[in-house]
Amino acid sequence: MHKPDLATKPIVWAIASSDSGGGAGIQADLHTFAALDCHGCSVIAAVTAQNSTEVVGYEAISQALFVTQLNCLLNDMPPRVIKIGLIPDAGLLEQLASWLAQHKNQYQFIVIADPVLSSSTGYNFVRQSTLSIWRHQLLPLLDLITPNLPELALLSQLLQAEVASQAEQLLQWGAKALLIKGGHCNGTADITDHFISPNSSLQLTQPRLSTVHNHGTGCVLSSAIAAACAHGYDLADSTIIGRAYLQQALCHSYATGKGAGSLQHHGWPTEPHYFPKLTQPQDTHYDTLSFAAIAAPIGFYPVVDSVQWLKRLLPFEPDVIQLRLKHGTALEIEQQIAEAVALSRDYKLRLFINDHWQLALKHAAYGVHLGQQDLTTANLPAIAAAGLRLGISTHSYAELLRARQLQPSYIALGHIFATQTKQMPSQPQGLARLKRYAALCSDTPTVAIGGITAERLVAVLQCGVSGVAVVSAVTAQAEPEQAFSRFKHQVEQHYAHYA
Ligand SMILES: Cc1ncc(COP(=O)(O)OP(=O)(O)O)c(N)n1
Ligand SMILES: Cc1ncsc1CCOP(=O)(O)O
């Protein structure tokens, strides 16, 4: 029998209250952690007596036992992430704030809080004293807080102000990032949540699902974000994963008692329709943009830095090549691109030009490869109208969703392993993420790039990508032509077998 190794599962704590009905609270938190491959620990603040229609009552746990739970867990199972849910008692909240202040720096855990101030059935859990502790003691310790609109208004003490001013108030009081949930904007066909952090600002929009079985949505969302953070995703990506997890769980929610039923917990979301549409301030919105298709699988995709390299590989029948020119005068770059495009026609080679999209257009290359930065400056409608294929680099869920919304010809997923070829601002993604990204792109060809060697090739192909791009695995080898032929053969064999 397979025995799971708990040490390999990231540990996440839920500091929250018990929901006797099982759909929200600690019970929902633990379901979510387990479904997202985390080990969940629970620190119970209160026991509520509730069912699907009402909260009948609650009793808070003693401060002594509350702190004993925290300390006993910290000694043996320190958390990577803490999720805070319902703490309906000012004394416990104060204890928690001082405990977090004492241990957060040393243990470097991330703290995410869902400020449950009232239940969805209308039960009010807070008093003024509790709100004041949230504002002045807890907020400065939070890496992310996930209020809905009424909670944001209450916490900010700016009941009549614009949402932006209310959000600004929470940031001024010390919260590092906010996810403002838009579900309480009644009557809209879509729900838009706003993620605000020092590094990024995102709007996440999804269709509003018509189900009444939505008990525990806030608990599940914040727990899914916590679980994704525990797997090392940054806050923006964790929020995207959390939102997709919630949409998936809501799509399959079910009746329990006479009132709002519960969410169905599934594993990692991969189907595109569960993921939100992202809007970022810097993005241009295109109504209809459609890029020519590239035959999938793309297969073996060498990236070379000169037309000389291209000529050296042509006798070995490459199918796809990228010309990635990083040096030279404007004249030299244009000459190389013109020569490479002419050669690509003679040899029926699908040639992508990196960065220089104007020259790719001018010389009518097969396609263009662009990075995320280039997307704001390149004339994408001109590239699409000219029938050139477009490939886009991505390094995260946020970039992947942004790329998918443009419906490019392929999406590059990188960097998978550490690479010496380029200084990367992000961390290597690794194979587990590659597999998730590739699954989300079942409708778009994908290419893995970064640190891919002959030894790693099979593991990369098994993640479900439609191509593998390499630089040094060919051009830095003692015998580049042999390396090229071996790679090409292995990749072709793989796709022939899995076609
Ligand atoms: C297939 C493939 N994937 C990613 C890249 C990187 O492109 P970009 O983000 O534009 O960075 P530079 O190549 O310009 O450093 C690529 N070239 N090809
Ligand atoms: C251009 C680029 N973009 C992401 S990783 C990378 C370099 C890949 O080179 P190598 O295959 O030598 O790691």
UniProtKB/TrEMBL annotation:
Signal peptide: none annotated. Keywords: ATP-binding, Kinase, Magnesium, Metal-binding, Multifunctional enzyme, Nucleotide-binding, Thiamine biosynthesis, Transferase. The keyword Protease does not apply. Mg(2+) binds at D355, D374. InterPro entries: Aldolase_TIM (IPR013785), HMP/HMP-P_kinase_dom (IPR004399), PM/HMP-P_kinase-1 (IPR013749), Ribokinase-like (IPR029056), ThiamineP_synth_sf (IPR036206), ThiamineP_synth_TenI (IPR022998), TMP_synthase (IPR034291). It catalyses: 2-(2-carboxy-4-methylthiazol-5-yl)ethyl phosphate + 4-amino-2-methyl-5-(diphosphooxymethyl)pyrimidine + 2 H(+) = thiamine phosphate + CO2 + diphosphate; 4-methyl-5-(2-phosphooxyethyl)-thiazole + 4-amino-2-methyl-5-(diphosphooxymethyl)pyrimidine + H(+) = thiamine phosphate + diphosphate; 2-[(2R,5Z)-2-carboxy-4-methylthiazol-5(2H)-ylidene]ethyl phosphate + 4-amino-2-methyl-5-(diphosphooxymethyl)pyrimidine + 2 H(+) = thiamine phosphate + CO2 + diphosphate. Pathway: Cofactor biosynthesis; thiamine diphosphate biosynthesis; thiamine phosphate from 4-amino-2-methyl-5-diphosphomethylpyrimidine and 4-methyl-5-(2-phosphoethyl)-thiazole: step 1/1. 2-[(2R,5Z)-2-carboxy-4-methylthiazol-5(2H)-ylidene]ethyl phosphate binds at T419, Q420, T421, G451, V471, S472. Coiled coil: none annotated. Residues 19-263 form the Pyridoxamine kinase/Phosphomethylpyrimidine kinase domain. Its EC number is 2.5.1.3. It is an enzyme of class 2 (transferase). 4-amino-2-methyl-5-(diphosphooxymethyl)pyrimidine binds at Q322, L323, R324, L325, K326, N354, S393, K422. Residues 305-474 form the Thiamine phosphate synthase/TenI domain. Binds 1 Mg(2+) ion per subunit. Condenses 4-methyl-5-(beta-hydroxyethyl)thiazole monophosphate (THZ-P) and 2-methyl-4-amino-5-hydroxymethyl pyrimidine pyrophosphate (HMP-PP) to form thiamine monophosphate (TMP). Belongs to the thiamine-phosphate synthase family. This is Thiamine-phosphate synthase. It comes from Rheinheimera lutimaris.
